[in-house]
Amino acid sequence: MNTALISVTGSVGCLTVVIILGAILGGMWLDGHYGTKPTWTLTLALLSIPVSLVAMLVAVRAIIKRIQPELVNDQKKQSSEEDRSSGS
């Protein structure tokens, strides 16, 4: 279970960094292209915050849906092993 939590945390952290860096680099490129020094960079950086929050929620929900059946199966295996050992 701890490895699943580490996996979720790492995935969400990387996703956030990619979104924010993409927004900043894209804003810098647009500012250089159109000659509007901080306008696009600041706008896209600020817009990347809610976008990254929504992306985090979607990613975490998808990962939890994938992990949840594994946890249920592990719990069933443990309970059946405990039943066998207590029955012997």
General description of the model:
With 88 residues, this protein is mainly alpha-helical. The chain has one domain (12-75). Helix content is 93%, strand content 0%. The model has no long low-confidence stretch (mean pLDDT 87).
Radius of gyration equals 22 Å
Largest sheet entry: none
Fraction of helical residues: over 70%
- Can you tell me the residue ranges where pLDDT is under 50 for at least 5 consecutive residues? none
Q: Which series of helices and strands comes N to C?
A: HH
Mean pLDDT across the residues is 87
* Number of individual domains: 1
Helical segment tally? 2
Q: What is the distance, rounded to the nearest whole angstrom, between the alpha carbons of the first and last residues?
A: 29 Å
Number of strands: 0
Task: Bin the strand percentage.
Answer: under 5%
What is the structural class?
mainly alpha
**Large-scale geometry:** rod-shaped
Topology:
Blueprint: H1 2-34, H2 39-87
Helix pairs in contact: 1-2
Features:
single chain, 88 residues, mainly alpha
Summarize this, please?
The chain is an all-alpha fold and 88 residues long. The protein contains two helices and no strands.
